[in-house]
What we know:
single chain; alpha+beta; five-stranded antiparallel beta sheet; about 50% helix; disordered N terminus
Amino acid sequence: MPAPSAFPTDTKRHQALPEAVRRLGLDALLDVLDYLPDTVAFVKDAQGRYLYANRTLLERLGRPNVAGLRADEVFPASLGAAYSQQDTAVLGGRTLTEHLELHLYPGGAAGWCLTTKRTLIEAHAPVGLLGLSRDLHLPRSHASAHGLAAATARIEAEYAAPPSVPELAQSAGLSVSTFERQIRRVYGLTPTQLLTRTRIGAATALLAQTGVSVAQIAVECGYFDHSAFTRAFKGAVGLTPSGYRTFIRDRAATKG
């Protein structure tokens, strides 16, 4: 039997809050979230329309306000549709926790982030959702990842035929549990998420910079099942590989 956690679950922590604190609602929290420069925060209603977007999100969208709009009205059409589908799934009961994804903004900014969304419930029915997407800042140098250099070098060199987590732990000279804990501490990701980021990152570069077929890119990035590659890519980027290539080309043509 696993040892009990030293920290209470989210539900227990919420129950432990004084009633006077719980009655305050989201206002104070949202005011604080407005000052996070590396985190996008938002609240949407049951139809997926923005009720609140923090300063960081508005700056990245290049808009003074998005209240009353859906994601497919503020992001490029193909991307916005994917984000709206994700909202619908969360409002339908799906829990999204630290989902690794690549955000692409209308102004051209792009970056990896970890997204968490939760449904807001009132009278046993969903009335909206709260979401946070925090930027993923990987270390500039493996020198900061003491003891992990060999393992992370293997991920970057061998992502086309990725080693297993136990093999990576062995490369680092660590037990699997210690390896996973240190990767999480240094990179903010699980080993599997770090590998996914590397593989999908390589795929986005090939799609954007070459004319290599999607099928060949899938193989070069370690996906020998084309449908598995498409699912993994769309899960991380919000677009299919072909859709992403079209999106990048259209954006380049617009800038030109």
